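TICKET #2291
ISSUE: user wants both folds in one file
ATTACHMENT 1:
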Amino acid sequence: MRLVKTITEVGNMYAHFFEAAELRGMLTIKELSQHASEALVKQGDNSFCVKKQLAAMWHSNNGESILIPHAHEADLLR
């Protein structure tokens, strides 16, 4: 979550290392986190799982497929 918040800050010099789609994904996660935090604090729960958000984004971007198209990506995920 720290990476998401840092990279999406306006003017962050490291943001150019990420593709536009990756930055959009990070912004989406940042927004979801903010909305979840507001709602969960009202309920007395402050948990937000970035891993679940990344997994959901991965599945939606890949047609809900559990197969990874490239062996290198599979190695990186392992």
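ATTACHMENT 2:
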Amino acid sequence: MTKKEFISKYLRKHTETGKKFFPDDFLTLSSFNTIKLSNNSIFIGKEMFGKIELLTTEGETAFLAEDIYQAKYIVYSKKNSVEDIKIPIDNDEIKAAVVKYEKYLDGLLADIKEEIKKHSVDIKQLHSISNEIFVKLNLVRY
């Protein structure tokens, strides 16, 4: 099986079993604040004055997060191209959602590795295959 065939087959399988969306599938919002961000993509920058800086692709500060979990929560939520992001008021809820989501992503990586072994695809291609699958599924892992 070629790399391209494997990726196509895996994406079909994943679509059939149901992709999970962050944050909706990883928490129950009871009380939250809403922040508005531009349409630009964002990524995690450096710590700045005890906060984590979220930057746009142009290098501008988009938001200062309270901690790494809030920063990840915002970046993962932003992957769905939403401007208004609902952030739980409870920091433990933010952390729990991020941890669950990252376990979901780690599970996907483990599943991709197992499927590669089953289909006799060159295991040396694991990194490029998993990256391409994550890009096509619009997923990111920090």
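RESOLUTION: both attachments delivered.
EXTRA DETAIL ON ATTACHMENT 2: Helices lie at 3-17, 68-78, 91-118, 126-136.
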